[in-house]
Amino acid sequence: MAKGHTSRHGSMAYYPRKRARSPVARVRRWVDPGREGLLGFAGYKVGMLHVVKIEDNKNSPFYGQEVIRPATVIETPPLLLVGYRVYGRDFYGLHSLAEVWMKDLPRDISRVFTVPKKEGYFEEQKAKVEEVKDEIREVRAIVAMQPRLAGIHRKKPEVFEVGVGGGVDAALSFVQENLGKQLTVDQVFEPGQYIDVISVSKGKGYQGVIKRYGVREMPRWHKHRKGSRRIGSVGPTSASIMFYTPFPGQMGYHQRTDYNKRILKIGNLMDEERRKEDDINPKGGWPHYGLIRSMYVLLEGSVPGPAKRLVKMRFPVRPPDVEREPPRITYISTLPWPQ
Question: Is 70 within 8 Å of 48 (Cβ atoms)?
């Protein structure tokens, strides 16, 4: 009788499989669509649900009919633009030239870092930016999350950089005009477009080869001296053991990028009137999260990470070359999607 066979689990594209440095994902590339403004945004993962929408893919056999799709809710409270940093470029890549911070930083920022408070520091930094203006090749905004405006209770905000598009001159004028102001997600993205989602996946700890790589368990009725939930051979050892040999180790808590996630809806619950028409919060709040109290983004499909994990969104690196109609949602379920 022939033996069944399954493909080896675990893509080789994700080596080494070690823990992420931080729960806050790092974006290594920002895509400039050619317009002035932020090149990305961030929010907190709330959970999953399902929506009933009109299929707008003309190549689908269900075009024009109602279909059920899983979706992920990400709460996106306004980002506070607390500063900006300008970069030059040389043989070794980008290097920082100067940075400017807003004068009166929020009290929560002091939990993350401190900025010099000497007299004339703000004017000194602005003058330094003007001196190196000819050397600037990239401008990035320094933004801070505002978890107090979201449904989670976190005292320490995340502070990180976001690319600014539109060219050096336009980007510099944008950050100077909006320094100290709040920026919302609808100023960056719009419903119907595709984005890339970058996050750190759920951590599953130290796991064996059966769960980590899908290795088949050896028959238990043979004379196993060292157990059955292991690999039979590690391969040749004369030179060295191959790095792709399945071994136990860390599983999960890796940074992952999901490409081309479509935005189905951008909602706003920051006003009392809009909260009365709320169609996204289940009764009693979201499991392991609470109630959504600010703006949110509804993405089609799943997103890496558990609830309350910070999720970064950017313009797509490789956008699909298809034209889609604006999304039409007929029903949003308030029952969380099983995860």
Answer: yes
Percentage with pLDDT > 70 across the chain: 94
Q: What pLDDT was estimated at residue 225? A: 67
Nearest to 141 by CA among 92, 174, 106: 174
Residues 6+ apart with CB under 8 A from 297: 43, 73, 74, 76, 185, 189, 263, 265, 266, 267, 313
Q: What's the 3-state SS for 148-201?
A: HHCCCCCCCCCEEEEEEECCHHHHHHHHHHCCCCEECHHHCCCCCCEEEEEEEC
Secondary structure class of 268 (helix, strand, coil): strand
Q: Quick check: bond before 16 cis, omega within 30?
A: yes
**pLDDT value of position 1:** 45
Q: Rounded to whole angstroms, what are the CA distances from 106 to 109, 145, 253, 283? A: 6, 11, 31, 33
What residues have CB less than 8 Å from 95, skipping those under 6 apart? Answer: 87, 88, 89
pLDDT at 226 > cutoff 80: no
CA distances from residue 43 to 58, 73, 112, 269, 307 in whole angstroms, order as listed:
31, 10, 18, 15, 11
Phi-psi region of 124 (alpha: psi -120 to 50; beta: other; left: phi over 0): alpha
Residue written as tokens 């929560």?
A: 108
Tokens representing 294?
A: 């600010």
Q: How is residue 141 annotated by DSSP?
A: E
Q: Cα(137)–Cα(97) distance, rounded to whole angstroms? A: 10
Which among 152, 144, 105 has a CA at the least distance from the CA of 294? 152
Rounded CA separation 95/165 (Å): 18
